[in-house]
């Protein structure tokens, strides 16, 4: 007070005694900062006096305080008094410097500096939260009083996670709910200059909830539906797990997610029980009841192995049993699924020379051995029939075509052969009548072409492409692309008809099913045997069961093996 009085006396004397003094000619004002008063734990009162108004227009006025590290400016220009009761932004037991300021159109004028020891400021108070529930990333506003006027002095925490502040005043703060794993009710914490307060109201952080599953028992590759709420609301980074296995998501909405049951790669020969877990951003939820991934594979008795090397060919089925031809010694071997055993079928060995890569087409009571490739890699036009009742081979007239590899399909009781060379033939092997149809529309690459029947229609598969055969117009229609390929050390893909659609065993490992309704290939399972990519397989179908016989491999343990697959 003494300093303020002395300064005021000097200024008054100076003004009254010097009529022509320079101060009377000043364009800018003169101010005095008064001593800080009403210092208590709620705040302080700052006051100043304008001694000379000056000639320039005053735009703003107020106080600047500093603790030596940070400087803050408080405007009081919206008040008719040069005075403010400061209730925020003061730390306890900290010495501050304060001085008044005036901003004119051309200048900033400062008053004298005064010092005071702060006893703190009024703790902030939160009145309301709006809205009172939301998701990670949502915008929320709190209203109250005694917030800091400076955004950097306010900190918001939601469940102890720091929130990003968008807009801040001394009575309202707008912020974004931070990403976190927590869901449920929690307080909003506001920190102002190291003073923390919690909201009395709770804010509910929402997250995904699973209410039901369309089925709790399915094989891998089957589609199921997960029902619930807020399933995709927290962002686009959504994942579904069955235990440790990640599931492919087909479709997703906020209340429904369609997924494919994942392949239990580490345990293919047993049922797997798994908890379904959904993750969405930082949020995770699970379904209370375990899901059963039904096993698709069963180990069966392998093909017979002898002291001499066997060379089994493609399998075929007849009257509920499976068959394979060993071309090295000419015998046909029969698999009885009831006994799970192999035995030689009949006594009639193949009566001609050894060759392989034939098609074995079962038709009525006969099996036709169509074409093949000899040991010099020459494609043959040979045609043999085997009477399954009389147990004898019969040589028929040569074919009008040959192939290095081929696929066949039976459509409307007629046999068709599509060769790797791109020729399509309609064949009546009994009557030995053949009709060449239009060639395949493009060159077949990488030594693979095969065929299957799905929903009464014929399809062809090559690496990368799928085709539908239009019998009426004798042309091939391109369908969906596929991911089938051959690695340097892996086997060629194998295609077969099963359960009214087509399947492909790619590289000896991955089993795909063709979804003819949606024109897409679905990964259904993985072959469970050892050295899968390096073992040649022979496949035959018995009713609703597909049998995969590993007939040769470069590695010990890769063959002979056999597994039954059920959808």
UniProtKB/TrEMBL annotation:
List each copy of the IPT/TIG domain by range: 124-204, 208-292
What SUPFAM superfamilies does the record tag this protein with?
E set domains, Kelch motif
Query: What InterPro entries does the record tag this protein with?
Result: Gal_Oxidase_central_sf, Ig-like_fold, Ig_E-set, IPT_dom, Kelch-typ_b-propeller
What is the name of the protein in this document? IPT/TIG domain-containing protein
Species in which this protein is naturally found: bioreactor metagenome
């Amino acid at each position: 007070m003494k300093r303020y009085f002395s300064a005021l006396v000097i200024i008054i004397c100076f003004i009254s005694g010097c009529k022509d003094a320079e101060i009377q000619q000043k364009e800018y004002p003169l101010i005095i900062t008064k001593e800080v008063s009403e210092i208590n734990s709620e705040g302080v009162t700052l006051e100043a006096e304008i001694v000379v108004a000056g000639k320039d227009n005053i735009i703003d006025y107020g106080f600047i305080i500093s603790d030596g590290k940070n400087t803050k400016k408080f405007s009081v220009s919206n008040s008719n008094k040069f005075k403010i009761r400061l209730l925020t932004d003061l730390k306890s037991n900290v010495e501050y410097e304060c001085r008044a300021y005036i901003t004119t159109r051309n200048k900033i004028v400062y008053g004298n500096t005064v010092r005071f020891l702060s006893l703190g400021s009024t703790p902030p108070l939160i009145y309301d939260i709006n809205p009172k529930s939301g998701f990670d990333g949502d915008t929320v506003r709190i209203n109250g009083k005694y917030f800091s006027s400076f955004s950097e002095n306010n900190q918001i925490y939601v469940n102890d996670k720091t929130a990003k502040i968008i807009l801040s005043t001394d009575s309202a703060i707008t912020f974004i709910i931070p990403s976190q794993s927590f869901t449920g009710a929690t307080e909003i914490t506001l920190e102002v200059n190291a003073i923390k307060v919690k909201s009395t109201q709770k804010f509910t952080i929402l997250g995904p909830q699973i209410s039901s599953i369309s089925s709790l028992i399915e094989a891998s590759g089957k589609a199921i539906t997960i029902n619930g709420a807020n399933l995709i609301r927290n962002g686009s980074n959504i994942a579904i797990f069955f235990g440790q296995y990640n599931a492919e998501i087909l479709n997703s909405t906020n209340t429904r997610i369609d997924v494919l049951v994942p392949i239990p790669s580490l345990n293919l020969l047993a049922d797997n029980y798994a908890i379904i877990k959904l993750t969405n951003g930082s949020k995770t939820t699970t379904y209370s009841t375990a899901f059963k991934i039904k096993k698709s594979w069963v180990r069966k008795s392998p093909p017979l192995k002898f002291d001499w090397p066997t060379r089994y060919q493609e399998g075929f089925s007849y009257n509920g049993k499976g068959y394979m031809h060993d071309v090295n010694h000419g015998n046909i071997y029969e698999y009885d699924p009831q006994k799970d055993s192999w035995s030689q079928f009949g006594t009639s060995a193949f009566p001609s020379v050894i060759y392989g890569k034939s098609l074995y087409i079962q038709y009525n009571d006969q099996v036709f051995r169509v074409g093949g490739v000899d040991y010099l890699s020459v494609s043959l036009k040979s045609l043999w029939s085997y009477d399954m009742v009389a147990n004898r081979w019969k040589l028929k007239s040569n074919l009008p075509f040959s192939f290095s590899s081929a696929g066949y399909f039976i459509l409307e009781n007629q046999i068709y052969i599509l060769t790797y060379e791109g020729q399509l033939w309609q064949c009546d092997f009994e009557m030995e009548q053949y009709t060449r149809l239009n060639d395949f529309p493009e060159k077949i690459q990488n030594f693979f072409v095969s065929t299957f029947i799905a929903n009464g229609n014929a399809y062809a598969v090559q690496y990368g492409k799928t085709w539908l055969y239009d019998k009426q117009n004798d042309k091939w229609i391109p369908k969906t692309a596929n991911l089938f390929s051959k690695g340097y050390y892996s086997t060629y893909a194998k295609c077969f008809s099963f359960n009214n659609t087509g399947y492909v065993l790619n590289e000896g490992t991955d089993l795909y099913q063709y979804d003819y309704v949606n024109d897409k290939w679905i990964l259904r399972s993985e072959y469970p045997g050892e050295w899968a990519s390096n073992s040649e397989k022979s496949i035959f179908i018995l009713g609703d069961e597909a049998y995969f016989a590993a007939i040769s491999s470069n590695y010990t343990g890769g063959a002979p093996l056999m597994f039954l697959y059920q959808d």
